[in-house]
Amino acid sequence: MSLKIRLSRGGAKKRPYYRIVIADSRRSRDGRFIERVGSYNPMLAKDHEDRVKLDQERIKYWLSVGATPSDRVARFLAKADMGEMPVIHEQTKKHLPKAKAQERLAEAVEKKKAMAEAAAEAEAAAAAPTEAEAAAEEPAAEETPAEEAAAEEEAAAEEAPAEEEKKEA
Asked: Would the CA dihedral through 72, 78, 79, 81 be positive or negative?
């Protein structure tokens, strides 16, 4: 006979109360049991002393006989220093989107980051020429009027031959 230390549900609808029982593993959850060895009231606060009650002597006896605790009962026993904490297995990933959808989401995130970086670079570039233009304007103001006049004459001379060539053609 395979023995289990497990929870048997009692209480009203939406007001659960569990008995910790020793039962044959082939029996139904709330069916016949061999012995009641404690109780669990999830409606009480987690730090309340009556939330989990265990008959430690009887539980030690049944563990020595070969009864195996369920995951939840094993947690209760571990908190009472009567056993090891069960290993928590990794949950399935079925709730996550499929591979292609994840790729699309990753691409969208990368595209958003690229857009944000481009906007930041554009702002930086817009700010930099403003400073460069300000620096360029200052030396131009320092030029003497004679230099300005010479620059205007050169520009006029360059334009004049182009105008003459148009007239000849």
From this structure: positive
Q: Higher pLDDT residue, 126 or 40? A: 40
- Cα 135 to Cα 129: distance, rounded to the nearest angstrom: 9
Any idea where the domains of the chain sit in the sequence? 3-79, 99-159
Q: Does residue 66 come out as left (phi exceeding 0), alpha (psi in the -120 to 50 range) or beta?
A: left
Write out pLDDT tens, residues 74-87.
999 999 988 888 88
Tokens of 166: 């148009």
Q: Chain-wide mean pLDDT for the chain?
A: 82
Helix (H) or strand (E) holding 69: strand 68-69
47 vs 52: CA distance, rounded Å: 10
Choices 3.30.1320.10, 3.40.50.720, 2.60.40.10, 3.90.79.10: CATH for 3-79: 3.30.1320.10
Residues in the chain: 169
CA distance 99 to 108: 14
Which pair of tokens denotes residue 142?
């320092």
Q: How many CB atoms lie within 10 A of CB 28?
A: 8
Q: What is the reported pTM?
A: 0.53
